[in-house]
Amino acid sequence: RHVQVAVPATDPRSPAIEWVGRLGMARLCLTTSPDDPAVFSAFGRAVHRFRRAGDSLQHTGTLGGFVEECRLVAEGPVDTVVIATGKSLHITNLMNPNSPSIHAHNAHESVITTLFCDAPSGLVFSSGKDQRIHAWRIDLDEQRLKPLASIETEGWTLALHFDLESNLLLTGGLDSRIRIWRFVNYTKLVPISTSQETHGVLTLHYRPEFDGALLSSGQDGAIKVWQLLPSRLTQKVVTEPEAHSGCRVAKVDGITKMVVTAGEDLSIKLWRIMPSSLALVASAEDTHTDSISDLCVDGKSGIVVSSCRDGTIVTWQIAGDTLVRLAEVSNAHVGAIALHYEAATRTLFSGGGDGHIKAWKFTGSDLVCSGTLEACHPAGILSLKFDAATGLILTGDSGGMLCTSFWVDGAFKTGSKVKNAHRTRLYAMQYDAPSRIAVTAGADNKLFAWRIDPTGRLTMEAGTLEKLSKVVLAIEYHASMGIILTAGMGEPVKAWRLEADVITALEMNADLPNSSMLALDLHVPTGTLAGAGVTGELRVWTLEVNSVCPKPPTAVCHVGWTRCLQYDAPGSVAVTAGDDGEVRAWSVTPSQVMLTAETKEAHPDGARGLLYEARSKMVFSAGDDGAIKCWKLVTKPREPLATVADAHRGTIFSLQAADVSMGREHVTLLSAGMDGGLCAWSFKDGEFTKLAELEDSGEPMLAVQFDIGTGNIVGAGLDGSIRAWKLQRGTMRRIAVAEAAHEGWVRALCSHASSKLVVSSGDDGLLRTWKLEKDALKPMASTGGNGSAESHGIQALTYVAAKSLILSSSSDGALRAWRVEGEAVVCVAVRMGAHTSGVSVLEYSAEKAFVLTGGSDGDVKVWSFAGDSFDEVLEVPGAHAGGVVSVSWDVSKGMLVTAGADGFYRIWDVGSECRWLHAVGEVGSLHKGGPTAVRLTANAGVSGYIFTAGKDGVIQAWPSLQGELQYLGVATGGSGGKAFAAMPGTESAAGGYYRQADLTPCSMEQ
């Protein structure tokens, strides 16, 4: 029951040394020695050791000779490492080649998939394809790996994390759930709770001493944030004061949600637990001639049993709003009576002040004694518990004695006794049959836990170290949580933890009264706790076990599986690696997970190992070839990468950008301004270069569309005309024009390259479509005449190619969908009042069928669009003071950039299903007079650039990420500086093998 703890001279849990890699569960691990920290990798049939050499790693030795592949390595106690090979576990000291190794061959019946070691305590947890989780303890003195507990699981477990402070084991796997287990007395893993379904869980990280956040990653490539909620008592309902004149007994039936109470007024009342109240179901007045000592209730059959201090037992039947007396047994015992009713067999057990135990059978409405165990207690029995599965009866008396007996085949058998279980009265007792643990409280102000073996023998298991301040009159026990609840005169309900051989006070989130509670009753399966006190009121709580609750932040980290996850809670940093071979760093807060930095082609063969050293911000990653690359996470203030100070004379109305997705090495931008100029720019290696310029395109252009694939540019502006150019080999050549396409200004424009469609709207109220041929813009359809009321005031347009629909937003705050029918453009859907004022920004995501809008009211909204309606998905009110002027959205990467009249551009993290939108960065006063346009582009990775333009005629480029992973080099294999690779067929290691594994067959116990 005791854990051997081997703590290094400097405690690795000290905040001064933050080795996030200590928690690693993969092919890499970091050791916590402050004098000689080392990195270990498990690849091939060997484990390799590396020492830190500045900002790099140097190979210093290899433990080889394993029969099967080394898949996992974790730090063990006192300079050891734990290695998983095939079905076996090995513990060896790579710091001292002469020290013996510990081997557990066939630790699992199939290949080991997951390994976790808590180095200070020497506790090891492993899981395998045999669908079992084993708990072990490394005993360095006896040179063995001692098995402690084992459980069978549903599916493969691929993630393990153990928290020593709370004794909780967190697991995740292909069953797509996170499960919580309590490691009871270091001998048994008891299930506590299960999360809601998620995608296959591959990694888990939990740091309770900081923010309590639990991070997971899995088969969907996403990183998810959960909150591990502590055990707590939540008050559900309470009756009015003086429901009784002093309430002494309360018993709960959690299945039927009924509670029965009795008070000093000699009444018995039956209550039903409602969502927000307690409803009185039935009652009986003047039920006994003296104080009621105990109650039983079976809500399913409607049976209530009560006992009195005068030795009487009465049975009742619930009938409507009354309790009907069925039978009464006078002088059943001498003095007060303790009761237990077994509904399945309709058997009642009683113990009285005469020290006798009796069994009673219901015969019709009568109660008939079917057996008596006489004088088993020299003093009056105060408490009685019965276990139907074994027939065990546990009783405690007013002299402090604890006794066991059995009811077998209709007869009593004596068990054993502990005469001085408590020095005086034994006031309260509770028994948990599955764990065979009983907890007791006495007048000596002590709590004790007792283990009962199958013969009934009692052995003290644990106790409080000091006397309690008040006498405990009521006690309840939740074995799987290891929580004891007590109540007494002058004290509220208190919680205690039963751990190993000690019962200690437990701080628990609870809404508890200050008044004395005289009775408690807990229905463990439902967690329903009833309490009654001297004020006469009845209170009902819900005892909530440790649970895993999802939190909003989620981010898709990798294409394919996210294989590795490291989490530094104090720094709010997570680092991931996945099947796409990239390493990415994330900022994690309670409301967001935002990409901070990423690599480019870190491991083309896929990443398989990852470590993050928080103190130095070093990242080590490994690929399938076993090569370890070194990176440094650098964060910095968000500053522009490059600026074009005089891109245009005056306001820039439009900015378009095309990224490298077409195979180009640079970003191409197109800008149009008040000066009538049209400019093409290249952004590469942090610099702007002008590609082409059209100095005088006519009147100033308010809207421009650009397609990088064809090089086609379509623009329109103040003169009402629409023009098209082709950008090719550093020149812009006009290819088509539609003079006087609209009367007045052209306010909005969109184009679709593959269908050659151009859509425009103007001050004349017309919504028109055109076809861009080689040298002409041919009119196709229009709203006709002077336009319709719906087509007036259009401020933005976009085209939904999959549905052949045009979407528009207008100055009246409405969203509309249009369809071309012959030569007419017809409105087919409308959402009035989408914004409280004009909607100036409109974008559509074909990937998710979402519409994004921004309005003069400053709000940003997301809508789902199925073709016939706009349904609001989320709203961010007040995203920008003064209105939203521009947005750029990449749904697949979960990133949105907005620019507003308040002079700010803001970066937002967008959930994969657009269920949340969190601002994660901003830059203010970026343009004199304010920004007018913003564009987000990718650059062959998840990250990219943000380009802004403003009323000052300036264009700026910004990094979309606030940090970078600087590549420092690859781990070397010796003094020659040669790159180290662990796998056969790759470049050989220079460090050599300094010992072979001692793989002598041995028994599991050895």
Describe the structure.
It is a single chain. The protein is mainly β and 1006 residues long. Helix content is 0%, strand content 56%. The strands form 21 sheets. The protein has a five-stranded mixed sheet with strand order 1-2-3-4-86, with no helix packed on it. Strands 45-20-48-47-46 form a five-stranded mixed sheet, with no helix packed on it. A four-stranded antiparallel sheet has the order 5-6-7-8, with no helix packed on it. Strand 76 and strand 77 form a beta hairpin. The radius of gyration is 37 Å and the shape is flat. The chain starts with 27 loop residues before the first strand and ends in a 10-residue tail after the last strand. Residues 1-25 and 984-1006 have low confidence and may be disordered.
Beta content: over 45%
Structural class: mainly beta
Q: Helicity level, as a percent range?
A: under 10%
In spatial order, strands of the major sheet run 1-2-3-4-86
Largest sheet: 5 strands, mixed
